[in-house]
């Protein structure tokens, strides 16, 4: 666990663990006296940290979220290669080993730090010129630019890549009572634009000149254009949208807690990352993960074992498990970078389960933290930065977590 610099401990330590709920986005208000509960609809709900981590690390619990059933059914067998996010077992593990090279800390630091710095400076410069900006848009610009470099979506034939990506995501968040024809038409239209304007140009460019990016890797593995499109769509959600939300919620916390903002300005990287990890623990962008049991699952909980039958659906309540007092102690709903963690094996990550765990742990975790750190430090370096309008907090059905919109920040 990172520690706060000695010169700051005396003035800030007592402020770091207030006895109040500091969470701003918690949609999952489910509660249970038991860490593992089955409801009348047959779904198993897992709330405890240890219990959720057991499921995530179990080879018999396969991916069941992010609308996997919709994807498989809608493609009608067209996809020979499913997106890595939706694959399980040995094939998934092999693909993860091969693609992790794009996201390692050393690669991220060597290949992308300078790029992140320069683009963040450009965005900050625009903010200073305009005087006010919608942070929801600004953070999306940052997240899209970084992820598109890593994925390889850098050859769009027309401007508007961010808008086309957003359009696809908004289709997935249409109200439940929206006509099916509307969602189907909009979905196909938005995907077609993304394919023609962004994905196909990137494929053509990399067939001629391969790069060290995800699309070049997929081409080398003989993925079809439709399969690459699907993979890029998944990366759009996982690598761009989630980071966008985290940057916004982190700045919200930092501007309301000056002692943390100050440590972000002057602290070491270890200290800054500890602060960001703690905010992410409290505000996981993906608030609930879903799994399905391919065989009977045996879960240890509070000295007993619970057997979850084969075929069961499981809801893993990450936003609840991340505040499990058995692990994170008292005041687990507060932002407390110095909080002591209980001794557990394997070691408890400072960000808890916000990046998942096990085979499907988010590969871009270090990328997200590094770009957030760079961008937030540059924002906080503006002495007159202030919140002009707090964001609207809504729920994303796709990510099972929060979305922050209309978040206006200004400089005097």
Automatic annotation (TrEMBL):
Domain of life, per lineage: Bacteria
One Pfam entry name: p450
Basic and acidic residues bias spans: 17-26
Keyword line: Heme, Iron, Metal-binding, Monooxygenase, Oxidoreductase
Alphabetical list of InterPro entries matching this protein: Cyt_P450, Cyt_P450_B, Cyt_P450_CS, Cyt_P450_sf
Region (Disordered): 1-34
Cited PROSITE patterns: CYTOCHROME_P450
A molecular-function term among this protein's GO annotations: monooxygenase activity
Family classification: Belongs to the cytochrome P450 family.
PANTHER family the UniProt entry points to: CYTOCHROME P450 YJIB-RELATED, P450, PUTATIVE (EUROFUNG)-RELATED
Protein name: Cytochrome P450
Annotated organism of origin: Phototrophicus methaneseepsis
Lineage, broadest ranks: Bacteria, Bacillati, Chloroflexota, Candidatus Thermofontia, Phototrophicales
């Amino acid at each position: 666990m990172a520690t706060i610099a000695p010169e700051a401990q005396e003035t800030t330590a007592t402020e770091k663990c207030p006895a109040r709920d500091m969470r701003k986005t918690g949609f999952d208000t489910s509660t249970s006296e038991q860490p593992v509960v089955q409801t009348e609809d047959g779904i198993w709900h897992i709330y405890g940290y240890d219990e959720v981590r057991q499921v995530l690390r179990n080879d018999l619990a396969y991916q069941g979220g992010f609308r996997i059933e919709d994807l498989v059914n809608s493609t009608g067998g067209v996809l020979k290669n499913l997106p890595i996010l939706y694959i399980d077992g040995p094939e998934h593990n092999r693909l993860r080993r091969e693609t992790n090279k794009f996201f390692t800390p050393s690669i991220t630091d060597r290949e992308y730090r300078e790029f992140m710095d320069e683009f963040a400076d450009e965005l900050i410069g625009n903010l200073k010129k305009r005087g006010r900006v919608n942070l929801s848009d600004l953070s999306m610009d940052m997240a899209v630019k970084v992820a598109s470099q890593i994925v390889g979506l850098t050859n769009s034939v027309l401007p508007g890549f961010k808008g086309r990506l957003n359009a696809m995501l908004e289709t997935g968040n249409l109200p439940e009572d929206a006509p099916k024809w509307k969602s189907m038409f909009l979905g196909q239209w938005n995907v077609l634009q993304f394919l023609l304007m962004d994905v196909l140009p990137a494929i053509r460019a990399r067939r001629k000149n391969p790069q060290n990016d995800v699309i070049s890797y997929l081409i080398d593995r003989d993925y079809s254009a439709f399969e690459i499109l699907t993979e890029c769509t998944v990366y759009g959600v996982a690598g761009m949208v989630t980071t966008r939300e985290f940057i916004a919620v982190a700045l919200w916390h930092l501007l309301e807690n000056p002692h943390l903002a100050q440590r972000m300005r002057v602290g070491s990287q270890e200290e800054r990352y500890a602060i960001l990890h703690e905010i992410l623990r409290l505000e996981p962008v993906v608030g609930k993960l879903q799994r399905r049991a391919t065989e009977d699952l045996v879960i240890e909980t509070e000295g007993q074992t619970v057997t979850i039958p084969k075929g069961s659906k499981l809801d893993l309540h990450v936003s609840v498990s991340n505040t499990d007092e058995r692990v994170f102690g008292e005041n687990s709903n507060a932002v407390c970078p110095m909080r002591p963690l209980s001794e557990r094996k394997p070691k408890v990550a400072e960000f808890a389960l916000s990046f998942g765990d096990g085979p499907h742990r988010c590969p871009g975790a270090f990328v997200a933290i590094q770009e957030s750190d760079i961008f937030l430090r540059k924002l906080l370096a503006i002495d007159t930065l202030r919140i002009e309008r707090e964001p609207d907090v809504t729920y994303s059905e796709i990510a099972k977590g929060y979305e922050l919109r209309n978040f206006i920040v200004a400089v005097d």
